[in-house]
Amino acid sequence: MSHVPASPSDSPFTSERNPRDEAPQFVLPLVVRMERGAPPARTDALETAARAVLVLLGDERAQGDGEWAEAVRNWEDARIRKVVRRARGAEWRRAEALPGITVSGKSAEVRVFVPIPLDGWPKDLAKLQVSGTELDDPEPPVAADPTQPVLWLNPELEMSAGKAMAQAGHGAQLAWWALSDAERTAWRDTGFALAVRTADPADWPRLTGSGLPVVRDAGFTEIAPGSCTVVAGHPALR
């Protein structure tokens, strides 16, 4: 069973200093493929990043005595940081040679890597750019299937695609932590089906007060500390 915060004060997503800050800090790298002239659709990239986080958490190598388990535990015991970078061509091929898992969506490819020390990036990932992950949806996303998990984005926040991908990953992770083993297995069996949608402004107060898992950003980049970025709406948690 993955770590679950004992209390809100122990949350990995909060601006207040807490015991997690005393632990060695790790980061989960995510790299989105951004070939020139063929960028992925924004919503598909967000959904693929969220599924990539879940695929890593559900992988047997990340659990028990698996080869990635210690790195995942170290990461979960500290702040839950995710950083999204972009790659194309030879950069992408070099990234694919590092330990991790590539997850594909309709138009997006995202590779998730084993957590690494905050100051210990492999050179082939360290030189990839964080900025420039501006993506658009060619057509508005269709309404989310109410029978599937939906990660609701705060309609009042402006986030780059890279930032939003990381936040969607946070929301997926909080949902994963909140589920029972049987519920996790059932979700895995669907291929971690999910949707990422921007909430209707009129629904946002209800969502944040519903008791569903809420991501409160620590404020390291782009947005103010303590901002609610995502509400994780899994059917088993509603």
Automatic annotation (TrEMBL):
Region (Disordered): 1-24
Coiled-coil region: none
EC number: 3.1.1.29
Catalytic activity: an N-acyl-L-alpha-aminoacyl-tRNA + H2O = an N-acyl-L-amino acid + a tRNA + H(+)
Keyword Hydrolase: yes
Enzyme class, first EC level, given as a word: hydrolase
Keyword Hydrolase: yes
Family annotation (Pfam families): PTH2 (PF01981)
Entry GO MF terms: peptidyl-tRNA hydrolase activity
Keywords for this protein: Hydrolase
Name of this protein: peptidyl-tRNA hydrolase
Organism from which the protein derives: Streptomyces alanosinicus
High-level lineage: Bacteria, Bacillati, Actinomycetota, Actinomycetes, Kitasatosporales
